[in-house]
Amino acid sequence: MYRCCFERCDCFRTRGESSAPVSTAPAAHAASCAPVNQSSRVRGPLPGETLTAGPVVVSRTVETPTTDHLKAGETASRIADYAELFKTRVTAMVVLTAWAGFYLGSLRSGVSSMQPGLIAVLLGIGLVSAGSAALNEAIEHRSDARMRRTARRPMASGRIGLVHGVSLALAVAAAGAGLLLHQANALTAILTLATGATYVLIYTPLKSRTTLATFIGAFPGAMPPLLGWIAARGRIEWPAVALFALLFVWQFPHFMAIAWLYREDYGRAGIKMLPVVQPDGASTVAEALTYAVLMVPVSLLPVFLHIAGWYYGGAALLLSLVYLAYTVRFGRITSAPSAAESKMYARDLLKVSVIYLPVLLILLMLNAR
């Protein structure tokens, strides 16, 4: 790194001295910046002479990463790894749907949902969900490593060790269950643990054995609003079952779209999804359409069970018909002229599905009775 002083660079020359232009090449510049012997120092201007400016040399300091910068980068990377390990986006959706159940259950009891127990319930359910997600990644770390979509997951790539990941997952899930036991009720804690166990011990191993794993996995996937209701009310009731049904039915078009988008990945990993076992797409479309049609009456159950008004009912009917329309459009995958076009239909359905559910639940909470 050079720090050149102007007096040591040939930046100024007098008229009458060499008329050759001053080289700006790095080698010439470096030579001009070398120490000058006292006996050959350039003279100053004589009386009557004027100075003309040559090229201006700008010095620059190159910063190298400091230890603090490196540590900050490592910390950020580690936080991102743990966020991926615990599937924070999926866990956030679990917490949102559990909140909907808790809110509606509290309203049925005639108390405000904004009570001290709310945070404890959502945190407890979220922790069990996060721990279960991490255990799922531990079991699937080898198959994840074979899939492009999941190869960079922390345990699949080795950034988080298997023993460390499993130990942390068990601790987090246990903490969540303990919180629910002390701050909610025993039924909520037991059912939340049972949901996590079903997801990890039954659904996850079955994914590589049978296409029925999707159906079985829909049960733990639909539990969060039911758990929220039980945390508020202490028992299972028909309105809570209706909330369970909403999530249960919603999942099938959503997961059929995902399965079609990543069918090559699932095939490489040996996961028995419908598009892998029956690649023509007919059974995938049939299953998605069946549940999208069923979603229309199921979305109206809260109205018939008197936990929501007809403002919600009208909006739910409209939203469910849009969901159905995109699922019908998804049916074009069987005749699409290219893989890119068929994936476009799947991607559009996936986008609609992840908008549909939270909007439906928010409208339900806004028009709840």
How would you explain this protein's 3D organization?
The chain has 369 residues and is mostly helical. It has helices spanning 26-32, 67-85, 88-109, 116-139, 141-145, 154-157, 162-183, 186-206, 213-221, 223-233, 238-261, 263-269, 274-277, 282-299, 301-304, 310-330, 339-366, and strands spanning 12-14, 51-53. Helix 3 packs parallel to helix 10. The chain starts with 11 loop residues before the first strand and ends with a helix. 38% of the residues are buried.
Which percent range fits the helix content?
Answer: 55-70%
Q: Would you give the CATH topology of the largest domain?
A: Tetracycline Repressor, domain 2
- What is the topology, as strand order, of the major beta sheet? 1-2
Q: Strand portion, in percent?
A: under 5%
Going by CATH, the architecture of the largest domain would be Orthogonal Bundle
State the name of the first-level CATH class of the largest domain: Mainly Alpha
Tally of DSSP β-strands: 2
Q: Quickly count the domains.
A: 3
How many alpha or pi helices? 17
How does the major sheet shape up?
2 strands, antiparallel
The H-level CATH homologous superfamily of the largest domain, spelled out, is UbiA prenyltransferase
**Class from helix and strand fractions:** mainly alpha
Order of helices and strands: EHEHHHHHHHHHHHHHHHH
Unreliable residue stretches: 1-42
Shape: globular
Distance between the termini: 73 Å
Please tell me the overall pLDDT: 87
